[in-house]
Amino acid sequence: MQLFFLVLLIFFESLALANEFNSYVEKASDRKSGMNIRWNSLLRAAEIASETASEDQIRQIIKFVNSNEWYMRNAALISLVKINPQRALTQAKKLLNDKALVVRSAAVEVVAQNLTPEHKKVLASELHKSYNFNKKSSLWIRKQIIEKLSLAAGIQDRDIFIKNLFDTDNDVSQISAKTLEKITGQVVNEVKYVEKWRAIVKQNNWL
User: What's the confidence (pLDDT) of residue 153?
Assistant: First the structure.
């Protein structure tokens, strides 16, 4: 009898949580509500679903990845990280070319959590995409990307940093030089640091 009531209690608790999840998803879908309410509602729904989220709940969150509002696409990605990191990674790779810089930045953060050789190439290619520039000026996301690549860099990634050593963005070229020093073990004096590394690369025919 006690087992029966325990099972019944668990059932009703699960039902209550499911209803609460649906309620927050409805709030997140309500375009009459303000940005903060909708954004927080979706994150709250993800917290309720947690890591035991059903496939249906995951799909409901993923729908917001295609929202017209940048902040809901952003909220969807953050929510997916909470409930299913692998699905978050899949969606993040799609959002790397999102029209909103904030969303692209969030996507970089997610992809950078799993820097396989393939994902390193993906992020490295994003450094040179036109949407990560304002005319010819480098946007801050490029520094974010090169920093993430630098943290996981090994000697096998040398070509990525050689290429970006000659970048016109001082942050990108400086981080590339520091990374080359780290992965090659070749120490260079701080004076005219980037210029010296460029000379080393040319002398060794690494280009």
Answer: 97
Spans of the chain, pLDDT less than 50? 3-15, 17
Using CB atoms within 10 Å of the CB of residue 82, give its burial: 0 to 12 exposed, 13 to 18 middle, 19+ buried: middle
Q: Mind spelling out the 3-state secondary structure of 153-187? A: CCHHHHHHHHHHHCCCCHHHHHHHHHHHHHHHCCC
Whole-number Å distance between alpha carbons of 107 and 94 = 8
Collapsed DSSP state (helix, strand, coil) of residue 139? coil
Question: What is the pLDDT at residue 12?
Answer: 36
pTM: 0.88
Residue 124 tokens read as 């490295």
- What token pair was written down for 176? 């590339």
**Exposed, middle or buried by CB within 10 Å (0-12, 13-18, 19+), for 123?**
buried
pLDDT the model gives residue 2: 52
Of residues 202, 204, 205, 154, the one with CA closest to residue 180: 154
3-state helix, strand, coil in the chain (%, to 5): 75, 0, 20
91: how many CB neighbours lie within 10 A of its CB? 21
